[in-house]
Amino acid sequence: MEVIHLNMLRKYWQDLGLLVASLVCIYVVINWGTLSRINSILWLSFVAILLHQFEEYRWPGYFAGLFNKALFRSEAPERYPLNKQSAMIINIIIAYVFYLPPVFFPSLAWLGLAPVLMGFFQIIWHGIFANIKAKSIYNPGLFSAIFLHLPIGSWYINCAYDQHLLTSTDWIWGTIYFVIAVYILIVKGNMWLRNKNSIHPFSQNQLGPYYNK
Question: Is 141 left (phi over 0), alpha (psi -120 to 50) or beta?
Answer without folding.
Answer: left
